[in-house]
Amino acid sequence: MRPLSDFILVERIVAPEMVGRLYIPEQLKERPVEGIVVAVGPGKVSEYTGDREWMELKTGDKILFGKYSGNDVKLDDKEYVIMRASEVLGVME
Fold this sequence. Notes:
By secondary structure, this protein is mainly β. It has no helices and 8 strands. It has strands at 7-12, 18-19, 22-23, 34-40, 62-65, 71-75, 78-84, 88-92.
């Protein structure tokens, strides 16, 4: 999968099912808001100059994004999120 324009493909980092000795049911789990960038598009083309804008993100970056950002996709029985780079809140270092 190769994203187009300024889109990125992200694999969510899923929280553990157990916290200490407590089991967290599926209904109470929140959607993960952390992920690893799997693929990055080439960047958006500027309306004004026609030049391709530089992408700050790269494959392997651990990112933080909004709870309802992007669209869920399933590829080869794995779930990913595809979103615009502008939806990313930050890169975790």
